[in-house]
Specification:
By secondary structure, the chain is an alpha/beta fold. It has one domain: SGNH hydrolase (Rossmann fold, 3-Layer(aba) Sandwich), CATH 3.40.50.1110. Helices cover 38% and strands 9% of the residues. The strands form two sheets. The protein has a six-stranded mixed sheet with strand order 3-5-4-6-7-8, sandwiched between helices. Strands 1-2 form a two-stranded antiparallel sheet. Strand 1 (60-61) and strand 2 form a beta hairpin.
Length: 363
């Protein structure tokens, strides 16, 4: 009698048990282990981690307090009182520095009798693409009545990459720009993408998240300087249009603001570092040379083009607009560097916004 080795097929019950165990392990990792790990790192919730573009809650950045929701200004409930006016600000450091949100709240509360809540969604280094992400995946749930959009100079970074590596969603500049159904909803997928899939462009003159490289310190101009050949202008325009549509779809009122800046004709990095240009920044509050964003002529022309885009969109799509560029760009006393307002500049900025709300009867 021959012995025959018989390989028994796994029983159906064992297969089902294995699948259930695998699903349970994934769900435990996704909804229990990973969120707990991030909570230990100071991040308040799973949804906060998945957003990925807010600041660490409850800290102080220079003189500006980050609230428990990762932004500045008022902490909001999802349910808004029908008698309350809510305002959101979007942008980068020029809309964030020197307690901008706090000072805007104080000024606006003086002109209206209705309850007012203002949250500052602007954060340092943020671009128009960040504003799309923040609004689409977070701020839209809070039913803002007015959204102030102050975008500009940081988008100029996005051109500094080779033409073949440029991505219209700016995902060439950082992993958190990339969005899809899986990355928006799975911490595990986001972790794997950030750590093992996304890679920094081979050609880029800035490490956007770790500070300026040799060029911004006066070194030679890198080969890939503006390698994308101004393609970020097109994306900038599309982002502004998309923000306007998103805000209006939520019954909010978008308000565009042209970008104020001042680069003296005699600007050099050495003169800037030696405080010889006339900027008003005695405490050296977040001082940045023009070269952080690119060559002087590139930055000057770039912001002017962005302002042309903003004015065009405001005109063509009947969007309210504050022409801050026209009001303060020619006055160096308003600036601590080429784009960041001085103390006096912040006061002027806040007053211009307040006067705009008054003159248009918005509060």
């Amino acid at each position: 009698m021959r012995l025959v080795n018989i390989i028994k097929a796994p029983q159906t019950g064992n297969v089902v048990l294995l699948l259930i165990s695998m699903i349970f392990a994934f769900l435990f990792a996704e909804f229990v282990f990973a969120p707990a790990l991030f909570l230990m790192e100071g991040q308040p919730s799973r949804s906060f981690r998945l957003l990925g573009v807010a600041a660490e809650p409850n800290i102080l950045i220079d003189d500006t307090k980050i609230n428990s929701q990762g932004f500045t200004g008022d902490v909001l409930d999802r349910q808004k009182s029908p008698h309350t006016t809510r305002i959101l600000t979007l942008g980068g450091s020029a809309m964030f520095n020197r307690r901008m949100t706090e000072r805007l709240i104080a000024s606006l509360k003086k002109i209206g009798s209705k309850p007012l809540e203002v949250q500052g969604g602007a954060l340092r280094t943020h671009t128009s693409r960040h504003s799309i992400i923040k609004y689409k995946y977070h701020f839209n749930m809070y039913h803002f009545d007015y959204v102030l959009i102050y975008e500009g100079v940081n988008d100029l970074w996005m051109n500094h990459v080779s033409a073949d590596e440029f991505r219209p969603d700016y995902s060439h500049a950082g992993p958190w720009y990339k969005r899809n159904l899986l990355l928006n909803n799975s911490i595990i997928a986001r972790y794997l993408y950030d750590r093992f899939i996304w890679s920094s462009p081979k050609c880029n003159i800035y490490d956007l998240w770790r500070g300026q490289q040799a060029f911004s310190r006066g070194g030679p101009q890198p080969v890939c300087y503006n390698g994308a050949n101004f393609r970020a202008y097109e994306t900038f325009a599309e982002n502004i249009r998309k923000l306007v549509k998103l805000i209006r779809a939520d019954n909010g009122v978008p308000i565009l603001i042209t970008y104020a800046f001042h680069i003296p004709a005699n600007y050099t990095m050495q003169a800037f570092q030696d405080d010889k240009l006339g900027y008003v920044n005695p405490t050296h509050y977040d001082p940045q040379p023009v070269e952080l964003w690119g060559a002087v002529d590139y930055v000057r022309a770039g912001i002017q083009e962005q302002n042309r885009i903003i004015r065009s969109i405001a005109r063509d799509e009947s969007v309210l607009m504050v022409d801050l560029d026209n009001k303060i760009s020619g006055n160096i006393l308003m600036f601590g560097d080429s784009v960041h307002p001085s103390e006096k500049g912040v006061e002027a900025f806040v007053k211009i916004i307040t006067d705009f709300f008054v003159s248009n009867g918005l509060l």
